[in-house]
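User: quick one, sequence for these tokens?
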């Protein structure tokens, strides 16, 4: 017997079908699938075709920027984020994503500004608070880094990347005990990430190494509904 779809389910299904039916929709869907499979070059090609077919699609520009960032093509990612924001200047997720690319380029003040703009637009976006904290940490503004990442965790209690980043912030602030507390919490969410934090704590590695700034690809259903 088929289960009855909720209203939300019908809306999501309708939005998905609408997205695929629009110019570039198939390419957008393929790009998301290829990105999820880790095929970044192929995902980039799909999103490039999606924005060629539908230049006004902000979500596709954002997603192309995300893939470019993961490929290390940071300047191209910046250009795509700017195009997305020109189309939808109040999209908090895109501002949050932009903060990550600025940070990777060492443009920390711009990363801070982008993350703060995301938070102003959407205070409940945990990833933006996490990204702000990572940018503050790179500026050695540890008190602000810790406060921002703790807010991310308050908003999203199972946010593994935030526990990792909070551990790093405490470690760089020379508070190994607090860093170990974050390691203990992180073990319950992501064992591999916890091991990485543990190794950094006991190797005495303060600067360098992995960061866990996070990104979002807008869901095809909601992005189609909003754009």
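Assistant:
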């Amino acid at each position: 017997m088929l289960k009855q779809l909720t209203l939300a389910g019908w809306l999501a299904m309708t939005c998905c079908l609408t997205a695929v039916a629009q110019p570039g929709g198939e390419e957008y869907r393929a790009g998301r699938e290829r990105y999820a499979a880790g095929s970044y070059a192929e995902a980039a090609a799909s999103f490039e075709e999606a924005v060629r077919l539908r230049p006004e699609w902000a979500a596709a520009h954002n997603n192309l920027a995300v893939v470019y960032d993961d490929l290390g093509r940071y300047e191209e990612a910046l250009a795509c984020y700017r195009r997305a924001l020109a189309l939808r200047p109040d999209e908090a997720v895109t501002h949050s994503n932009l903060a990550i690319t600025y940070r990777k380029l060492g443009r920390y003040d711009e990363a801070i500004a982008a993350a703060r703009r995301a938070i102003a637009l959407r205070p409940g976006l945990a990833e933006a608070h996490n990204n702000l904290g990572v940018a503050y940490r790179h500026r050695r503004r540890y008190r602000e880094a810790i406060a921002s990442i703790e807010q991310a965790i308050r908003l999203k209690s199972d946010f593994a990347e935030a526990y990792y980043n909070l551990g790093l912030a405490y470690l760089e602030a020379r508070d190994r005990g607090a860093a170990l507390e974050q390691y203990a919490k992180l073990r319950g969410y992501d064992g591999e990430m916890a091991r990485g934090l543990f190794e950094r704590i006991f190797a005495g590695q303060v600067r360098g190494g992995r960061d866990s700034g996070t990104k979002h690809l807008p869901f095809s259903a909601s992005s189609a509904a909003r754009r």
